[in-house]
Amino acid sequence: MTFLPAGVAEREVGHPQRIAGNGERSNLAAGEGSDALRQRHGACAGAIARIAFEGANPVYRGDDCAAHGNNDPQRQELAPAELEQRVAGRSGHIRFRCVLGPKNCSRSGRAKSDNMSNKMWGGRFRTGPDAVMEEINASIDVDRHLFREDIAASKAHAAMLAKQGIITAKDARAIAHGLDTILSEIESGNFKFKRALEDIHMNVESRLAELIGPSAGRLHTARSRNDQVATDFRLWVRTTVDGIDAALRAYQYALAEKALAHAATVMPGFTHLQTAQPVTFGHHLLAYVEMAARDRSRFSDARKRANQSPLGAAALAGTAFPIDRAMTAKALGFDKPMANSLDAVSDRDFVLEAMSAAAITAVHLSRLAEEIVLWSSPLVGFISLSDRFTTGSSIMPQKRNPDAAELVRAKTGRIVGALEALLMVMKGLPLAYQKDMQEDKEGAIDAFAALALSIAAMTGMVRDLTPNVARMRAAAGEGYSTATDLADWLVRRLNIPFREAHHVAGRIVAQAAAEKLPLDKLPLKAMQAVDKRITKEVFAVLSVDNSVNSRVSLGGTAPKNVRREAARWLQALGKRRR
């Protein structure tokens, strides 16, 4: 069975309005699968796929095999005509449709199509597209997320055409008014998207023609869908990056607030997931503030390079009309027009760069999510999450699961996967535009939606979590975490090389382990048996408090360092928030 994409989850980063269904084909509600699923023995020539079940289908019952002349329960074949399966998403649905089958086939094996050749580009075509061609070619279920950008770019283009005398001012006004009407229709859910029109550009232009008549056809003067979609997507990426930046800033602020409150809360620091040295919880959280700062910097760099206008590059070679590309670039908030028309329509590095930043950000989020999962386990017990960010079990009444953190960890794979997928799409494409690039948006839109949700979830969990200060402190002293402090004391007081001090401290740790004592409880005589020059002053450095207080070097975990850095971040982030 071959399933063809007929929709995409309606997710929008930074866009509060939900877009309505495509308006041409109904979607199955939950539980309607039995009506859409038909089973039949055999298939006509031209049905591209079928699937045989061994025995009755335990999920989709009530089929009408008998009505189709198939009474053999041991071999039933799925007739995929008009098969739709709706998969619920966070803010929409994904539909998969198998478009060919017995009911859709003619004797010639060609799928029936009631569509005439496309009025936007079909001048040289005599017939409409095959149903499969229509399915694989349509992108409206994805690129309708770009409706605001498409309308804004079209208004800028129309205004420029009028200023340059390429169209009349009257036509430009009619176009602008019609586009505003279309924007309102889409935002209110009253716009009818048509799959036969393929994409957001032709859906908008077709509706514009219905509203204002032949003047709508002048809008596409001196532009192509190639520069149009590149412009729309750059605008969308720019807006989305701005939204991600604001979300990351809020995440940093939450981390810095929690860090300031716990600047002196001692916890174990780990290497290889083994107790290493005492640190403070505030210091640990500030590490993620720094990571998020670099993430924001990468997004900022990506935005700068994305903020150039492809509009006016047309299909690939520019245009003979006397257009003003600087005018449209300025109207749309771009820094400048792109310098090469081939490059303008044929590269998607602006998406790749933003998605690369997204992937790195997701990895950073995933690392803290993993720590939250570990810390909240009763076996570790460093933190607790409230009911707001945990879930229960359907069978085990006692469970409190950190599902939000686990899902952030999992969504990282989707985000990284979307980046890798687009890299594979782009790797072998000659100049200029190729239809392969239609696949640039679905993964990116999904990835940025997943990232925005992940950042929001992590921000909420950071604000929500409550550290178990006593448990953290007790764990910080386990595993001989102050052994490095002992070695440092030997260097300072005995003036011996660090390598020698490391060896002496190691022997003392071994003795303490043999006697099952912490370092600060090991008798002085036991230490002097290893090195007689050790004095009772050594005990001053063996407590976890003294250990963290002594780490005053730049970037160190000393509480006064943490308070200073947390306050600095809060001041900087607070100013930007205002």
Walk me through the structure.
By secondary structure, the protein is mostly helical. 49% of the residues lie in helices and 7% in strands. The protein contains 19 helices and 12 strands. The protein has helices at 33-36, 131-137, 140-143, 147-163, 169-188, 200-212, 225-261, 281-306, 325-331, 341-346, 349-376, 403-426, 440-464, 469-476, 483-494, 498-514, 524-528, 544-550, 559-577; strands spanning 4-5, 38-39, 52-53, 76-79, 83-88, 93-98, 266-271, 274-280, 308-309, 336-337, 383-384, 466-467. The strands form 5 sheets. Strands 1-6-5 form a 3-stranded antiparallel beta sheet, covered by helices on one side. Strands 2-4-3 form a 3-stranded antiparallel beta sheet. A two-stranded antiparallel ribbon has the order 7-8. Strand 9, helix 9 and strand 10 form a beta-alpha-beta unit. The longest helix is centred in the middle third of the chain and has 37 residues, at 225-261. Mean pLDDT is 84; it is low at 1-54 and 63-117.
Helix-strand layout with pairing:
Blueprint: E1 4-5, H1 33-36, E2 38-39, E3 52-53, E4 76-79, E5 83-88, E6 93-98, H2 131-137, H3 140-143, H4 147-163, H5 169-188, H6 200-212, H7 225-261, E7 266-271, E8 274-280, H8 281-306, E9 308-309, H9 325-331, E10 336-337, H10 341-346, H11 349-376, E11 383-384, H12 403-426, H13 440-464, E12 466-467, H14 469-476, H15 483-494, H16 498-514, H17 524-528, H18 544-550, H19 559-577
Helix pairs in contact: 4-5, 4-7, 4-9, 5-6, 7-8, 7-13, 7-19, 8-11, 8-19, 11-12, 11-13, 12-13, 15-16
Tally of individual helices: 19
Q: Looking across the biggest beta sheet, what order are the strands in? A: 1-6-5
N-to-C span:
55 Å
Helix content: 40-55%
* Rg from Cα: 32 Å
Largest sheet features: 3 strands, antiparallel
Unreliable sequence segments = 1-54, 63-117
Number of strands: 12
What general outline do the C-alpha atoms trace?
Answer: elongated
Mean pLDDT, all residues: 84
Strand content: 5-15%
Structural class per helix/strand content? Answer: mainly alpha
